[in-house]
Amino acid sequence: MKRAISATLALLLILCLFACGADEPAHEESASAPAESQAESSALQEESSEEPSVEESSEETSIEESSEEISEEESSEEISIEESSEEPSTEGSSEEPSVEESSEEPSVEESSEEPSVEESSEEPSVEESSEEPSVEESSEEPSVEESSEEPSVEESSEEPSEEVSVEALEMPTVFGCTRLYDNSYVILGHCVEGAVIYYEANGTKYSTGSDHGWFSARIKYRSSYEKVRLWAQIGDAVSPVKEFLAQPKSVGSDKWDIIAGKDYQFHLDYTLQDYLHTNLYTQSQMNALVSTLKNRGERTDAEIIYIVVPSPASVYPETMPDVYAEQQNGDVSKYDQLMEVLENAGVTYINVKELFAQHKDDGYKLYWKTDSHWSEYGAYLVYKELFDHISQKFPQSSPRAFDEFEWKEGTFRGGDMAYYLEYDDEVMSEYNVARIPLFDMPRSISQVRRYVSESKLTYDSDTMPAARTINTGRAELPSAMVLRDSYSTQIYGILAERFDKTVYKSMWSFSFNAQEVKSAGVDYVIYILTERNIGSAFR
Asked: Is 0.85 surpassed by the pTM of this model?
């Protein structure tokens, strides 16, 4: 029995020694010949046939690449292999990717922390590609695709960003849609103050500024029913999209034609030729005008002063629709030609276009947007230029200072543009400023009703067009005769307050009568008219 046990033990000892002897040559071969890619490749093939794991395939790739390119990484790998041959540690097991070794040595986790594993992770293997940002990951990060989703004219129309929905603006309201004469229609509405309005119709996208919360959106007319998408935006804040069916209404044939410009600015069609520069004077016409103006001055001792106010489109050309800007004929306008005529005639004049160019970005408007006239602030600027000149001869007639008036800001009912578009002027309103004297205005002036009401600064058609002579009883001041159109309304009171006597001719009576001027005994003859009336005033 003891002999049988001894024989069994001896047999087991021989088998163990045989097994150990079979393993040792593999370690020696690995240490002595690290560059033999055939041995490594065959070993990897055997491992992959036994356990085709992702990690093994990634290691195979790194080994093959290291055998093809002699680099610093390869030299570091050789060093690590030599070290592993000297010290049979975890590094040695990581370099010999044997399934048996990895199962026998509890150092797999340690080998994954070694630099050799980090190096192989930098290679473009299957393992690495799964760790790199994928399509799904990039969709979560702010990438190029996401930046293309930032609010723009086109993309915001697709879908306002949900990120700003927390700070979303109020949805704009629409109170009207009117067809215009120039194969377009205009949508009118209200929005958050300071917003830019973006809108889309029939696949075309547009944008326009608002004015203290009011906006107009001009669209090319295609049909009597058209789907429109519209929203407001301030910076990154976007309102919900308003979708509605636009059904433009038509206005009466007796109404003046209106051009719906940008930024809630409306223009009269009567001013279009002035803007397009298609009604220019010929040189012979300009020469004739010079002769006419010189002749007027020779027939009277009164100084003649010409104030021609440019149309809003001449001062704010950027508010005109793009379709008209593309049709503009050169840079010289009829207004510019007239300034040259006045200069050559040697008469006194105010170049209002140049003056307004210096003040177009002031806090107060130079013109109304819902009315075809200049504002009381614009009129004040010209008033100051006028009496700065007159006060050189009559110091008592120096202009009133800006702070001698209250500048009352507020919302006013729409002007003649609201009438031409057939809107309730309380619905189509505008933010502007009224000029209120802080000094005692002579009763002969204050009793004249200039406007329809305090909330509607459109000239009163019952009082303003009539001829009238105003006396203030101050003999030390000069006197004047005024030939005018409706633009005289906004300067009417403050002009007369600086004269002893003011003879207002009836509106649109521009004919110069030297005998009448002499009989009136005035010191000045003042022309006040807008650009569109140039032709009737200087014949």
From this structure: no
